[in-house]
Amino acid sequence: MFNWISIAAINMAIAVALGAFGAHGLKDMVSTQQLEWWQTATLYWFVHSLGLLLVGILIRLNYATQTAAWLLQIGVIIFAGSLYAMTLGAPRWFGAITPIGGVLMIAGWLWLALSSARLTNS
Prior knowledge:
Layout: H1 4-25, H2 32-60, H3 66-87, H4 98-121
């Protein structure tokens, strides 16, 4: 079993570092739109890291399954990662994979809702 609490904490550290880099290292190097992509990616990374922390706690308490954690983790990597990549110069078409990450994050939250309801009723 993965230690999702530790993984969430690492994600939060990464989000802080990437947020600081965007605020201080990129602001004079990229366009306003690119900086907005970076900020959006960082916001989602933070929010889903906190969510993953909660999911990790719920997994330990047997109120959730690891599937929710995996969906959130992979989703945020694809979502934020594609936005970070475009900010740093990846072709614009790279943004076509961003929604895949969003769908995975949505699926993770829905999986949490369904699996926690099932686990608490059994």
